Amino acid sequence: MTRTPAPPPERHRLSIRLVFDDSGMMGPGKAELLERIARCGSIAAAGREMGMSYKRAWMLIETLNAMFREPLVERVRGGPGGGGAELTPAGQEVLALYRAIVAEAEAAGQERLEAMRALLK
Amino acid sequence: MTRTPAPPPERHRLSIRLVFDDSGMMGPGKAELLERIARCGSIAAAGREMGMSYKRAWMLIETLNAMFREPLVERVRGGPGGGGAELTPAGQEVLALYRAIVAEAEAAGQERLEAMRALLK
Predict the structure, then answer these.
(1) Which residue among B68, B93, B121 sits closest to A120, beta carbon to beta carbon?
(2) Which residue of B has its CA nearest to A93?
(3) Which of A46, A65, B76, B104 is the least buried, fewest Cβ under 10 Å from its Cβ?
(4) Average model confidence (pLDDT) for chain A?
(5) What domains does chain A contain, in order, with CATH numbers?
(6) What ipTM describes this predicted complex?
(7) Strand pairing partners for B22?
């Protein structure tokens, strides 16, 4: 299992939570969990990398799976360590959309973010 | 003092937190508090509208005032009810920048937000 170092500190960034009326939320924590599951092939390992209990990681995935028409994560059999988990096509799509929304928002807001930063102490 | 009804429910929206490395954060709660202070001219009343204790509202404003070069909120004297509070020009600028960043991000992400919404249950 690969351990990923923490992302490099950025001068400023946007943390975006998508709030869907009555349907739940999708934010940076869930996105990071999905990304790590895709990379390490295990919910437990992904949660561990984020300092999250197995129970908490599972709860977040169950929330996501219940929120969308199709599950975003599913268990897979086999492999050297027994069962694991992977993103479904829907999971990959949701993660890609989320990342794109954040990237577009950062690009669109860059000038105003700089203006606000100039007002900081 | 005017009471403002809760904003109408939206089908989806972006909740954006600006994370400034080492300098703090600016998100929807602080923005709403600033907006309500501008409108009701009182930190206590603004906090009350948000179901927030006076202490908590003050703490948030002190955090904001310490975060920027110039205070965002200042006490004012006089008026029928005695002292109140108002946004400084810096406070008005920060609030306007924040609102513009959110609006731009929503506009930029509209298509992808719709695509994600289509995947919801």
Answers:
(1) B68
(2) B116
(3) B76
(4) 88
(5) 28-118 (1.10.10.10)
(6) 0.82
(7) none
Identify all chain A residues contacting B107, using CB atoms and an 8 Å cutoff: 108
The pLDDT of residue B37: 96
Condensed to tens digits (0 to 9), the pLDDT of residues B7-58 reads 544 456 889 999 887 788 999 999 999 999 999 999 999 999 999 999 999 9
Q: Which residue of chain A comes nearest to B89, CA vs CA?
A: A119
At B89, give phi and psi (nearest 5°).
-55, -40
Q: A-chain residues within 8 Å CB-CB of B109?
A: 100-101, 104-105
pLDDT digits (tens, 9 = 90+) for A54-71: 999 999 999 999 999 999
SS3 A3: coil
* ∠ CA A103-A107-A108, rounded to 5°: 115
Residue type, A15: S
Q: E strands, A1-121, where?
A: 12-20, 24-26, 73-76, 84-87
B23 contact residues in A (CB cutoff 8 A)? 117, 120-121
B/e letters for B66-81, b = 16+ CB within 10 Å, e = fewer, are ebbeebbbeeeeeeee
The amino acid occupying position A13 is: R
The single residue listed with the structure tokens 């709030």 is: A19
Give the count of Cβ contacts less than 8 A between chain A and B. 129
